[in-house]
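Friendly challenge for the regulars: who can give me the structure tokens for this chain first? No prize, just bragging rights.
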Amino acid sequence: MKPETGSSRYTGKMLRIIRPIPAESVRLIVFDLDGTLIDSRQDLCNSVNATLKEFDLPPLPDDVIASFIGDGAAMLIRRALTIPGELPAGRELDEGLFEKAFAFFLTYYRAHKLDYTRLYPGVVEALEALKTMPDGTARPMAVLTNKPVGPARAICDGLGLSPYFFNVYGGDSFETKKPDPLGLLTLMTQAGCSKSETLMVGDSDVDIKTARNAGVWALGCSFGLAPETLELADPDAVADHASGWQMVFSGAEIRA
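First reply, four minutes later:
Bragging rights claimed.
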């Protein structure tokens, strides 16, 4: 959804409203995982550098690796292998090398996905507040991530998130990944919710573009892995903390 743009306003808890989201109409909330619900940066960076070490390649700074996150594990590894200067002179990235590196990464990450990964502050409290509609009925919530679905579901299980969601879909759940809207549209169909009743929450332009491609509302998270991409993506609101999600639905007065 993209109504006429208004001036940005901040709530007392740092929720920036760009276009008011009609919270009373939102029944389905779909969350990204990495950078939105969980801080998985260190485990992903460690797993990428373990992969590079396995193939006799120099490590990359965490900030560089973090900038590659968001388009799925395969793209993460492809970007890490093809960064200028990463491969030795005369050595090109062929599909054989990529497939071996990708397979190693997946195996390593599955074993280390919860070494340092944690929930962002306020996530559980926000999910508790959002899981029920004002009339007392359950509000359907789900996860749509570009991370492979196996590790995604295992992380949700390990961190106690799974009971909040009726489904968790990953980057290999469908023939396309975000920002293609297929996964989001599938969740909307499963929940029986229309475009105007659906909100996508995520930390990057990939999530906002997914929302736009599906025609639904978009809430950005500035505390995640790719906040620098949010502004150009033009979400309807931006939360600086997970508690900001609740503010969308609280009816609280907006203060300048």
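Residues 121 and 242 are 7 Å apart (CA to CA). The radius of gyration is 19 Å. Your move, everyone else.
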